[in-house]
Task: structure prediction
Amino acid sequence: MPALLDPTSELRPAQREALPRPKSLSGSRVALLDISKPRGDVFLDHLEAKLGEMGVDARRYRKPTFTRVAPVDLKHKIASECDIVIEALAD
Amino acid sequence: MDNETMTVIPEAFTGYIAVVKRECDTCRLIEPALQSAAQARELRVYSQDDPAFPPSLQDVIDERALELSYRLNIEIVPTLIQVENGEERARLVGWQREAWRRLTGLPELGAGLPEFSPGCGSKSLEPGMPEKLAFKFGDTLLQARRIEVASQQDEHELMFERGWSDGLPLVPPTEERVLNMLSGATRSPDEIIGIIPPDNVPCTIEKVAINAVMAGCKPEYLPVVLAAVEAACLDEFCMHGVLATTYFSAPIVIVNGPVAAQIGMNWSHNVLGQGNRANSTIGRALQLVIRNVGGGRPGGVDRATLGQPGKIGFCFAEREQDSCWESLAVERGFSPDQSTVTLFAGGGVHPVGDQKSRRPESLTRSLALSLQTVYHRKIYGSTDALLIISPENMRVFREAGWSKARFREALDEALTVDGRDIVAGAGGVAEGMPKKLADKRLTKFRSDGLLIAHAGGGAGMWSAVITGWGRSGAHGSVPVTVAIKS
Result:
């Protein structure tokens, strides 16, 4: 049998380790990302209130639409402004 | 002369090359001319099928490997080529007595032979041979990683194990088959056709061809597959979302224009079903590209809760030849002689049966009843639809002289309802439109959210509704149409 041509992207992503879980939220900047799906904001409102009570610096961000991946600018903005992201998948 | 040619004609060679084969009547006929030319001139005779032919000549070169024929692009035998210092100066195909005399400078050549006798096709051009020779002698441009199949290994099982399959058997993508597939289009294998979601990987024509081979396509389908892949990569089609949603959606490929007949597509009986190779494999090739190049797999980024059988591949052609309405592609701004693909993010097929309507007013309202149930009877404006009108249903509009525009107008009216009937809670059903719309009149589809095409067999008063994605429109997917390039 002759060789077959690989139909895939041939991508072999480097093994990426998850970041260690933060021991505490104090002093961290937390991004609350709304993906623009119904009721995600309800969940994030609750989280924002809870984090506020804990004195955590929580900031709201929003994707233009849940149907597409986040725009690069938004990802850069979150990465440069926050340490932790909580994303609400909603529905 | 390029480097490849120099490997078959020595740089220092000056003289003539004749390419012949025994099975060609003309080659056998001109044996005396070849014999006398060989005596008077420096002539090298290459025989494609039998090194003992022509029997009267010494030193016939065995050309059964067809390397020289491939490198010199020999199309006809006999071919006579004049060479000077390794470079081709002139070429004659078939037997042309006066031309051969002039080229060889032998005024008596072929005395007694007819003035003209046409040649035969070169063995290097027999079916499948150009791809074999390109594989053997050419500088293949194919870049894909080679996956070796061990001698004890079943290549079909290997393809399943590697996750290349949608669950059905695949045609093994060997280099020969992929080269053959690429011959169906004129584009370079290394051209990037688009960025394939969900992994957003640049995809070459070669990768599309590999997946088209696996899907079972013929080379002549490749331009249609390429157009479908290009359409799927358009941002407004939002293939990532169409794949990632929990909804039923898949790219449905609708083909318009002359290409449908040229490649033998089905627009008639069982048009949305099985049985036609082009219909079945073009849609499948697109899905395999998304699976293999894009990395989109069920349970991975494909989060469909239920899915639908059309996700294996869903492609059909519009029945244009006896439609009394402009085609889907013409409505979308293309001319009738252009070949196009339209991609629609669709779910499954919902049949509409109306055996009694003989007037267009009744049939329109009847079709509207089914269209109202798209996505949900109480959800309006969020989901596109594709309405497929069968010939027997179209007859009603033809006999009444209704244009497509008039049908659309009447349909819009029949699809506009009082908001209070469909708001959340109405009829004891929690699902529905926001209550603030209770006093509004609401229309089922956004302004360009209903596609209409004519297809199906001649008998049967059926039409079909194909539901769009629940996220149709600018914030989700809009249907896209692209022209098919050669």
User: Anything to note?
Assistant: The two ends of chain A are 50 Å apart (CA to CA). Chain A is about 25% helix and 20% strand.
